[in-house]
Each structure stands twice: as structure tokens, then as C-alpha cells.
Give the backbone structure.
Amino acid sequence: MDRHYLARLLSPESIVVFAGRADDPEGQTAQAAVLHEALRAQRFSGTLQFLDIHTSGTLEELSQARADLAIIALPPKDIAAALEVAGRIACRSVLLISSRVDAELAADLKKIARRENMHLLGPNCLGFQRPHLQLNASVAGPLARTGSLALVSQSGALTASMLDWASKNAVGFSSVVSLGRHTSVDIGQVLDFLAHDAQTQSIIVYVEGIGSARHFMSALRSAANAKPVVVLKAGRKPAGNEAAQTHSGASVGSDEVFDAALRRAGAVRVRSFVELFSAAKCLASRYRPVGRRLAIITNGGGPGVLAADWINEIGLQLGRLSTASVAALAPLLPPSASLLDLIDLSEEATPAHYQAAIEAAGKDAQVDGVLAIYSPKARTNACAAARALVDAKLSLSKPLLSCWMGDASVGEARGILHEAAVPSFRTPEAAVGAFGNIAAFYLNQQLLRQIPAPLSALTTPDIEGARLVIESVLAERRTVLTEMESKTLLSSFHIPITKTLLARSANEAVMIAAQLGFPVALKIDSPDISHKSDVEGVALNVMNGAGARDTYRDLVERVTRLLPDARINGVTVQKMARARRGREIHIGLVTDDPFGPVIVFGAGGTMIELIGDRAMELPPLNQFLAHHLIGRSRVAETLGEWRGAGSVDMGALEQVLLRVSEMVCELPELREMDINPVIVDASGAVAVDARIAIDPAPQATIGRASNYHHLSILPYPARYERTWPMRGGGAYTVRALHPDDAQMLQDLVQHLSPQSRYFRFVSWFSELPPTMLSRFALIDYDLEMALVAVFKERNAAADGTIAETERIVGVSRYITNPDRSSAEFSLLVADDFNGKGIGSRLMESIIDAAREKGLTELDGLVLTGNAGMLRLMKKLGFSVKRFAEDPDFRLVTLAL
């Protein structure tokens, strides 16, 4: 059951093909003719059989044609029949290579596939390639060379172009998968398979559309946690939400949200087909950059300066050699060489000079990657210099990129670099950009590992009070809250606001202003006006009672004239925020399709659309994410000491963001929010104005696990944490697994007895492989759950002090099956904690979590010799049966 559910599709051992008769080319579709040729061009490592649905024969005869995968390349009128036959002969996966299959027929084919319990890739796709299996189940061109790079594409044309490019650039693939319109197996499922695929070390993805953001993010996070993933997305749109009712909604386009989602998923975004090729070159070389400092080695000043300029342009850092490295390298270079910033070898550079410089940069801790630039010079040999790079790469643990400039005289040298898998580029800018795209993987991995709880450690908000406000607004069939209502919501979540009172007459405005103290601000209060400044509905710095009276009358008269149908509740009065040299900040919320709510941060004031300063992050946030969100905005440059003003209270600003994140998590009705301005200075932050729009549509929830269905990334499920007494004395805590638990998981496995390790993993390894550890530690709480038992140990340090450390002593886990109604479970307990009741408690807890999720069945495989586990399963009510596929196992099942 450890085998991935798409293994029979993408790693089949036996294939049956429905593509017409080979001796009747006239009766074949264009795709079938190409497929016949593609499949026969090399010898598939498994068994391959061709069938004709029109041939005579009985079902008994067909049953002898059992196969893991059925490939169908037939006219649309024959596809359904072939799919039925595939089901009859027990195929559990189908590849449908076709074109011009409309949505109606595709829906019918999906129904047949679901009925027959088959995974269906297609229709309208080019198929897939698995070079290490010698399998070209595609019409995308000749079989690619074997490599560690996987390509997943929603465009057939791009797939074919990428393969053609790769054949000329010595790039090999582990997998190439083309996904067409209306496909049943989607991009998220393929990514999930590649995350587990031992042949795949890195992934490039071309995306045109996303069905389920939650499933896409789940699979992308899983894949990017284990392997570098680079994504190119079509359909970039600057347009915002035309129906926006706040500034936030009007200023954010879907492409910016996609950027934020990819960062949080740990993937790297490229903007063009050219950049995708560049990233593919680096990924195919299996480079794993761990920083942003790129050293430039060149034999010409001009190209080196161009590279350095582009390093600054895209936010990288120029890698400079340390003083010790310079002292060691200088005697090995020509006298005219310069090592101040660039490593300029001068025009006298020889291959030996290149090799010495690369080795020096490779050993220097101040350098994260190396770019070698070669310009054709008199009495120099481009090929010899290229071979020097190839030799230097053998002992280099850092990314090495090359730029052999020119054309006619360096073509052969580029071929040498290609064959040695040294990424080669024609321009310095392209090479630097490629390093920048891959280096972004390092930062995004930090964002990926941030999985905050829905509520921070701050004071608990009044969630019920906030919901009462929302319910009252919806009861009046309104979708936009007034300023008073919006600020009430902010106050419920302890966001500091300016005190605001509603005056319903000019005399009330005078009295309220006098009590608050002058100067005050007056604002029109109407549920029908989204932006008060558009109708001159705001008056600032009113200095006395007469001014308050006259301003009230002017505001009401002006708005009544401009918008005669608008409902006017009155005028709000608030004391002017006395923030000395305060900065105006905008914090907002926009709801994206399909990614859901997104938090927006940037410069505030009345010109936010013109300023266009916005950084975005998907909720939930923690302090790390809030800090990085602020840092990505342009206004961040003004938050330190700036033009005579002191630094602002960054902690207070981060707390406002954390509070907004709590609102977004706990109030799924929120659709847009505009807190503008938030004035922040050295003494704190205060929200001066707010506008919130909500969604009247009912939100269906099933159980507590569904409270966050509106989020693309589920928050950390802190609700599972409970402390239990341990049999024999002491106590332990059961809680959900966190990514930071990876090392404790590894320690648990390393200290198991060989027998316990084999019972759990059916393997004799002594520790979890890195990819498996990564996969176990970072999970999507929507599709799986892992609960750990944590025991706190007290040990005496060398100096006699007592130190308390945590240790994971048990893990229970379920992983949802593709049917989304059942799940596979596992259990592991440390040998020295057996017999203390921990295994029973972990199983009962994971069963409760599965029921809460709405699953109907838990099942698992237990080795026949694992008598203790089988006893526990029977005690917990599991049924125990023989496993038909392997007599060494028992299948245990519990109906929930």
C-alpha cells in the first residue's frame, strides 16, 4: 500500500493499447499512427499488447489481456466502448490520447472511469513519456533522453517544443506528462506522484488553469518540499476585480495572487518561456543553491560588469572572495587580474586560470554560486576553457553556470558544456537570471515551512461578538459594513482603532467633538457609499464646535445632492490621530478565485491605487510571514529612520497583521477589507478608517475540520493538543505534527530496534532517507493527519544544570485515499515506550481525527509476524483479513 495510486498509470509493468490495427493505417486516427510508431521505436521494459475493440472474441478471452495501463487512441465515437473494455479486463488506469473531445463527452468518459474505478489521464492530451522505462506513450515526439527533470504541462504545443529544445541541449527527463482540457487526472495528482518518484529530482510546470486551489496547493507544497519546482503560468492579467467594493479589491489582480501562492508553496515562478528553459538547464544539473551570492569570473571587464548590474537589478548579491581567498588566488593569476569585486582574470586568462578561480570561489564561504563568462580573445581556446570548467565542476559543491559569448567560435565549446551538464547561456543577463530563479527556491522553502495556527498567542479575540455583527448586516441584506460596524469587527480582534462615535444631528456632532477633544475628523456614514472621499464625505482637522456644526451640515447636504438615493445614518466623529511623523499604511483583504482570501499590505492614504504599492500573502500568518510581507512592500524602506523621523514600532505593525490573519481565518464571510490608513509611528499603530465587505452566501461546514474550508492553506490544527497520563507514571502530550519535528522524527526512527523498523517500513534502513523524511514532516492537513506523542525529558548538563528536552516517542498517521472517503493509517511507538498505553491513545486520537474529517473507513497493512500490532487492532475493533496480493501481510479495516 506504499505504492502511489498513480503508479499503474505512470509506472506500468504491462500495457494494452487500443489504437486501431497496425496493418490498417487508413482506419487509424492521426494520433494512433504516431502512437504506434512511438511505442515501437524502443523496447518497453514491461509487456505491451495491442488490441482491437472490433475484433471477435469472448470476454473470457479478453480477460487474459489484464494490464496496469490501457492506452486509447481512437475516434471519439469509439472511445467509450474502448473504455468499457478496459474496465472489463481490470485495467485500473487509462491514458486517452485524442483531440476534439468536447466537455459533454469528457464528462461521460469520467463517469465510466469512476464506475470502473480507473484513473483517467486525458482526453485532449499528448500522453506521457517515462524514458527510464523506455516508454513513449505520447504523440509529442521521439522519446526524450533519461534524466532527473520532470515536465508537467497543460499545453501540448509547449510540451512538444520543450522536448525538441531538450534534445539539442543535452537535457534529460524522468517524466514528461501532457495534461489536456477536461482531464480526469489533474495537475495536482501528477505533482503528488512526482513528489514520491525516486527518478525525479526536480520539476518544471506549465499551468494555464487551476481547478481546486486547495488540492493544487497541497500537491505543489508536497512536491516543492522534496524537490525544486519551477512554474510558468499563462494568462497573466493586470486587471483587478471590477466589482470591488473596497480599495483592496480594486487594486489586486489574480496574477499577483498566484505569485503569493507560489511563494508560500515553496515553488519558483518564471515569467517567460525563455526563463523556463534557463531554469530547466539549472535544474537538470541538479543544483541546489543555498543563497543569493553569485561570484562572477570573467576574462573581460565589460561582460562582467553587465552581469554585476543584473545581479543588482534582480535583487541578488555579488559574491566577493574573502581576504584569505584573494591572498591564495592572486599568485596563481596573471599580474593584470583584478579580484576587488569581480574575479576579472584579464585578457591573458588561460584554462588553468579559470580552473583556479572556480576552485577558490567554490571553497569560499562568502560565495553561493559561480558564473564563468568567456569572451573570445586572440590566442585563446574556447574549448580548452570549457574543459577547465568541466574539470572544476567535479569537485564543486555549488552551482556552476557558464556564459560563452559569441557564436561561430564558441559553438563547439558550448557542446562540451552541454554534455557535461554545465548550464550554458549566451548572455550574462540570462545566466544571472537563471541563478536568481533557482536561488529564489531557498527563500521560498523558508516560507513553505511556515504553518501557523489560526489563532496566535495574542489575547483571544471576541469571535462570537464579531459574528453577531456580520449576522445583523446580512439580516438587513447588506454586503458592505459601515465604518462603525467595520471598526467594531476590528475591535473584536483587538486591533487598535481611533475612537469613533456616530452623530445623527449637527448638535450631536458638536457635543461628541467637544467630549473627544479637538481637532476631530468628520466622515459621512452610509451603507451605500464605498469610498467616502469620492463624494467629498470626509473633513479633517475640525478645530472647534462651530466648525463641527457647519461641517456636519455641509457633509450631509453635499452627499444628498450628489447621491440622492444613498441612505445616510449620520456623520461619524473621531479624534484626529496624533501620530508624530507617523507613516500611513494600508492593510487589506481580497478574495481571489481560486485561491480564496489574500492579505494585502502597502503604502496607504487616498492615492493607494496610483501608488500601486502592494505585497501579498496567503493566510494564516505568523510573525515570520508578517515580517516578510512588510519587507516585500516599497513602503518598508520608510519604516526605519527616515527623513528625520524615528523608526516605527514594527512589532505593533506585525501584530496588526497577525490580528487581520485571525479575522480572515475565523470569519469566512469576509470578502474584502480595507483598513486605510493605519498610522504607525514609534509608539504603536492605530487604524483610522476601515471598510469591510462580506459574502451573504451560506457557508456549509461539516465538523470542526471544515471551519477553514475557505483557505488555500489549512492552518496548524492546534485543537488536537492534549496531555495524557502515562501508564507507569509521568505524562505525555499528543499534538499534530509540525514541520519543525523532522529531526525528532529521524531520531525516533534511528533509535528503533531493527525489528520495529522493519515492522513499520518493511525495510532494513537505519534512518529515513531525506526525501522520505521531508515527505513525512511537512503534510497537508486537508488530505492527511499525523499525531505525535511528545515526552519531555529532564537531563543534567555538563555544568550541573537541568535541561528539559522534547522527544517524539510515537506517531500515528492517516493519508486519505484518492476516493476521499477512506484513508490508510500507520502507527509507530518507540521501543522503550511500548506497554505504556501510548499506541492505543495515538490510534484512538487518529480515529477521532478521521471521523471529524468525515472519512468512512481506515485501513492498513500489518505484517503477519507483528503479533502485538494485530492484537491492538483487534482490541480497537478493526477487522483482520488475509491480504490477497501478499500472504506476508494482513489487511486491517475499521468502519468509521
About this structure: The radius of gyration is 32 Å. The longest strand covers residues 802-816. The CA atoms of residues 824 and 859 lie 5 Å apart.
